[in-house]
From TrEMBL:
Protein name (record): ACR3 family arsenite efflux pump ArsB
One cellular-component annotation, GO: plasma membrane
Location in or out of the cell: Cell membrane
Protein's membrane topology: Multi-pass membrane protein
Signal peptide: none
Keyword rRNA processing: no
Protein family membership: Belongs to the arsenical resistance-3 (ACR3) (TC 2.A.59) family.
Chief location of this protein within or outside the cell: membrane
Pfam families with a match to the protein in the record: SBF (PF01758)
The organism of origin for this protein: Natronocella acetinitrilica
Amino acid sequence: MSQRDRQRQWRDLGAYALAPLAGLAIGVALPGTVAMADSLLWPTLALLLFVTFLQVPLVAQQRLPQTKRYMLAAAFAQFLCLPLLVGGLLLLVPDDPGLQLAVCLVLLAPCTDWFVTFSKLSRGSVQVAVLSTPMLLIGQLVMLPVWIYLLAGSAALAAFEPMRLLIVFSAIVLLPLGVAMVLQRLRPGSGLRLTAHQLDRIGKWLLVVVLGLIGTSQLSALVGAWQSWLLPVAGVYLGFAVGATAIAVLIARAVRLRPAPGRTLLISLNARNSFVVLPVALASGAAATASAAIVLQMLLELFLLLGLSHVATRLLPGDEDQTDERLRQVS
């Protein structure tokens, strides 16, 4: 990476880091903007994923050679290794049913939307990320109730709403993905007559907007919510990040994933479905506590993913420019 590219990357990361803080300031100073930001967040996230999908050769990605290996590794990590990690960390959570439900919900549900964008930022394989989203959705629909019951009990399981996961996944992921695939098939490589550089810049600015909207609509919920549980729960979330990162690196090396899908695994294990499980928490008996705990995780995850996107190539080094191209070759 040239010095110029490195400086540009640092500028982008700075903008990403400042966006949620600026959004938080707006939400606190102008409370009337919170509802507006909340209504704009979902369509803007869908637009961000649409632009991300446009940059990926979706119509020619079905024969990537390491896809099966990645799927098996990701399923093993997401639905066995991480739940065991969460089970251990749950011992550190204060004995509050609302808190334990929130921690289980947010840490057991893998992200099915914006981890694709962060996979691109980390020089991971966006193609593999896109192909893995149905597995992640189906896996959490099947396994999330099981692990919630085992770790948090039957009372917590009653708050789980699988239909909400399906609706959000269809609107935020499947719809943009389908439109992008149709456009690519009608005009292969056209990207709506935009150059790759233009699409890249649009995607980066949309990510800034999404992060700002999160700051306004979600993070302001933490203001005035300082309680004795915040520090222990924040420690649990950070412990999860350390554990998930270690698991991703170990599994990627153990199964000999190429660098790009390895980085995608790294991002996927750290990205959680906080957007989707937040309404589930709001419907629970301890809505205020549970929702604040999930928003706290969302805040920490934002900065974690930004940091991981910068250091992913150091944790899983390899040829950054040719990795995705090699994925099209026979292993």
